[in-house]
Amino acid sequence: MIIGLTGGIGSGKSTVARAFETLGAAWVDADDVAREIVLPDEPALLAIQHRFGDQIMHQDGTLNRAALRDIIFKDPEQRQWLESVTHPRIRERLLQHLARLKAQGAPYVLLVSPLLFESGQHALVHRTVVVDVPQALQLSRTQQRDGVSESQVRAILAAQLSREQRLAKADDVIDNSGDHASMMEQVARLDERYRRQLNY
């Protein structure tokens, strides 16, 4: 069974995924895979460099993600072009990772993705879990974690589904606005439910 785990920026998806991992689940993060496919010499990076030039490259030949983010969140057309290049490659690589993790014998595998619904990756999973927090908390956590401006966080939020839309699509919800113990309790409940379903 593959569980899709999603939530807006700053909702704590990775923290929740690690909590599931402590209970024996395996997980792959679409953000990690998105970084993987733009490593030096990867076809996606060559296409991105060809389109945007050296302004989005570091001296060492790696992608300057901040410079690219600055361009694509100001121009929806550029973002659509970037997604057309990266999303199919991310999907293909995710399938490889998921197959490998399933073969290793975890009871179920989490696909952690901020754009689970937007990118169509929800078609790869059997159930979806949304990690939910109020928008004010998303803003403060992301600014603190990434050292970015409020306007940049709001631009990223605007590119994602609204909180209401995401919750409407969820099979399960984890409220991550409380303390760590509350989150762990919710994860343990879902873990128990997923294992029960696997026994049928």
UniProtKB/TrEMBL annotation:
UniProt entry tagged with the keyword tRNA processing: no
Principal cellular location given in the protein's record: cytoplasm
Any one of the GO BP annotations: coenzyme A biosynthetic process
Reaction catalysis annotation: 3'-dephospho-CoA + ATP = ADP + CoA + H(+)
Gene Ontology cellular component list: cytoplasm
PROSITE patterns: DPCK
Residues engaged in binding ATP: 10-15
Name of the molecule in the record: Dephospho-CoA kinase
Encoding gene per record: coaE
